[in-house]
Design a protein that fits this description.
Largest sheet: 5 strands, mixed
Distance between the termini: 62 Å
Order of helices and strands: EEEEEEEEEEEEEEEEEEEEEE
Radius of gyration: 27 Å
Length: 285
C-alpha cells in the first residue's frame, strides 16, 4: 500500500516471487489523477456607486484546480480586450478610446475602468470556468452624473502622460507594534489609479491598513500596528490610459522576542547586479 501518491508515482509496477521450484510474477499499472477543484470566489464583487469621470476597479479572487479561465460581462455582453486593452463593441474595437484594462495577478482578477461614463453603468458579472465546474458573481455599477450649471466652462483635455514616480517610498525597519507609513508621489495625466501590494497580494482597506491619495498625486499606505507577518516587499502600481509604473519598498518588522540584527533600511535586499561582465576568451588559436 502506498500511503500517499503523487503524479510522478504513476507507472507500471511488477511483483515477482522466486523459489527453487520456479518463479511467478504479477504486474499492474498505477494511474494517478491530479486533484481537481471546481472554481469558487474567495473574494466577490460588490455594488459600487461612483461619479462620472472617476476610475473604478472591480476585483475578485478566484480559486480552483486547474486554474479557471475568467471572463467579464456587462449586461450579459462579454467584455473583450485587445493587446491595447480596448473594448470591443459590435465586433469593432474602439481604437480611439480605450477605456478598460483586464489585470490578472496570481489568483486576483481586476477589471479597471479608467474613466467611468454614464453608459458604463449596469450589472457586471465575472465568470470563472475550468473543466470541472463554473462559478459566477455579479454586482451593479451605478454612475452618478454631476449637475453642471450653464456657466460651467469645460477645461481643455490635457495631453496623456504615463504615470511617473517622483518620490518613491522608503525601506523601513521597525519593532512589532509600531505604525508604518509608506509615501510616494506619482504624476500622470489623467490622474493614475494606484493599487498597493504586499508580496504580490493586493492590499485592501481594513482595520489595520489604510490608503489615501491627495489631489497633488501623493499616495499613502498606512499600517496602524505592524506585526512580523507584515514583513515583506510592498509595491505601488500606478496605471492610467497612457501606461503604468511600479515602485517597490521593503518592510522588516522585528518581533518583541526576537533579537535585532542591526539591519538598516539601506541594507535590505537589493536586486542582483552584474559587477563583472563576461569577457571573450581565446582557446589559443
Amino acid at each position: 500500500m502506498i500511503p500517499e501518491t503523487f503524479p510522478e508515482d504513476a507507472g507500471k509496477y511488477m511483483c515477482k516471487a522466486t523459489s527453487m521450484a520456479g518463479s511467478a510474477s504479477s504486474s499492474a499499472e498505477l494511474i494517478v489523477r491530479a486533484s481537481v477543484i471546481p472554481p469558487s470566489f474567495t473574494e466577490r464583487l460588490y455594488d459600487i456607486s461612483i461619479r462620472e469621470g472617476e476610475p473604478v476597479k472591480l476585483i475578485v479572487r478566484v480559486a480552483g484546480q486547474p486554474a479557471p479561465e475568467v471572463t467579464w460581462y456587462r449586461e450579459g455582453q462579454q467584455l473583450v480586450s485587445s493587446p491595447d486593452f480596448e473594448i470591443v463593441q459590435d465586433g469593432k474595437p474602439m481604437e480611439d478610446n480605450p477605456q478598460m484594462k483586464f489585470i490578472h495577478e496570481d489568483d486576483n482578477y481586476t477589471l479597471l475602468i479608467y474613466e467611468v461614463r454614464a453608459e458604463d453603468a449596469g450589472k457586471y458579472a465575472c465568470v470563472a470556468i475550468n473543466n470541472v465546474g463554473k462559478a459566477t458573481c455579479t454586482a451593479s455599477l451605478n454612475v452618478q452624473i454631476p449637475v453642471q450649471s450653464p456657466e460651467t466652462v469645460q477645461p481643455l483635455e490635457e495631453a496623456l502622460r504615463a504615470p511617473e514616480c517622483t518620490q518613491p517610498p522608503q525601506n523601513l525597519v521597525i519593532d512589532e507594534g509600531e505604525p508604518v507609513t509608506f509615501t510616494c508621489k506619482i504624476t500622470g495625466s489623467p490622474a493614475p489609479t494606484v493599487t498597493w501590494y504586499r508580496n504580490n497580494q493586493i492590499v485592501k482597506p481594513s482595520k489595520y491598513f489604510h490608503m489615501e491619495s491627495t489631489p497633488d498625486g501623493v499616495h499613502i499606505l498606512s499600517i496602524l500596528e505592524a506585526f512580523p507577518e507584515d514583513t515583506g516587499i510592498y509595491k505601488c502600481v500606478a496605471r492610467n490610459k497612457a501606461g503604468e509604473t511600479t515602485v517597490t519598498c521593503q518592510l522588516k518588522v522585528y518581533g518583541l522576542e526576537s533579537e535585532h540584527e542591526h539591519v538598516t533600511p539601506t541594507q535590505l535586499e537589493q536586486p542582483p547586479q552584474i559587477v563583472r561582465p563576461i569577457t571573450n576568451t581565446s582557446n589559443g588559436k
